[in-house]
Amino acid sequence: MDTFADFDRIDRTILALLAQDARITNKDLAERVGLSQSACLERVRRLTDRGAIRGAHADVDPTAFGIGVQALVSVQLKRHTRSAVARFEERAIALPQVVALYHVTGGTDYLAHAVAQDMEHLRDFTLDAITSLPDVARVETSLLFRSTTKPVWPDLTGES
Predict the structure, then answer these.
(1) Which one, of 22, 12, 5, lies nearest residue 47 by Cα?
(2) Cα separation of 101 and 89, whole Å?
(3) pLDDT, tens digit, for every residue of 77-112?
(4) Using CA atoms, how far apart are residues 134 and 117, in angstroms rounded to an integer?
(5) Which of the four CATH numbers 3.40.50.12160, 1.10.10.10, 3.30.70.20, 3.40.630.30 does domain 7-49 have?
């Protein structure tokens, strides 16, 4: 994967526009960045080939899947060996309720973004699936009341 310095202003603008709206047409994208449609399409292909664009996603309402509760499950491991970490990651991310897994620093080793139908389903998931994993020492669950995301990555150079 290239570094930030390897992308010019047009590449960064294309990335920002696609992060904001992955369904933008190539025609509109080309117009917004000041390129011909063919040059713009080539840039998008090159950004994809270079690994800067990893996919396009739809923002779907969780209730459409029957999800009524979301939580961040903090997990502390018993051991911090490479094999214990790898084993936990493999098992945790395979659980259908886990939609994201973050390896973090501090007193918590992992944050798992978990989804469930209701509180009972979340409790059962926590007790039956997470705490039963052999490398788990401690679990703490925090309910998500609301999540707000920012789809556009900031331009840290200060350039406009």
Answers:
(1) 12
(2) 8
(3) 999 999 999 999 999 999 999 999 999 999 999 999
(4) 25
(5) 1.10.10.10
